[in-house]
Automatic annotation (TrEMBL):
Keywords: Membrane, Transmembrane, Transmembrane helix. The chain crosses the membrane at residues 36-57, 66-84, 104-122. This is Uncharacterized protein.
Length: 136
């Protein structure tokens, strides 16, 4: 049950439709990857990533949404790179020590994780403190 002081987050219908289309493209990309349908998987990278970037841009004024949507952009980037590395056969090629081509996907994965850690460890506590001060 919502509390009287709960903020309402509403998404305009065109934005919601874009988010739903984003999910469709993302699923098609991953189905292409899973089934090794290279044309489908590769062709869905650009629309999936572009829509994620547009969603991130549109929600940039809400810090929580910005952090989570940036993490999604980096997640899709990492996921797409990993798929490409498998499709092109350099996923098992050693690039440094025991790290292989697919391990380079850790860079965008960890970037997205770092953004979320910053949000939850630094930004959100600041927002909570500011809200507490405002209610005094």
């Amino acid at each position: 049950m919502p509390q009287p002081d709960d903020q309402i987050y509403s998404i305009p219908a065109p934005y919601r439709r874009m988010e739903n289309m984003h999910i469709l493209f993302w699923l098609l990309k991953d189905i292409g990857w899973c089934m090794i349908w290279k044309p489908l998987g590769l062709s869905m990278i650009v629309p999936t990533l572009v829509i994620a970037i547009v969603i991130t841009w549109r929600t940039r004024d809400i810090k929580a949404e910005l952090a989570h949507n940036l993490a999604i952009v980096f997640w899709i980037s990492a996921n797409s790179y990993w798929m490409i590395s498998e499709f092109l056969g350099f996923d098992t090629v050693r690039v440094w020590g025991n790290l292989t081509g697919k391990h380079l996907a850790l860079i965008p994965f960890l970037t997205g994780l770092s953004i979320l850690l910053y949000y939850y460890i630094v930004q959100k506590p600041r927002e909570n403190r500011a809200a507490q001060v405002a209610t005094l």
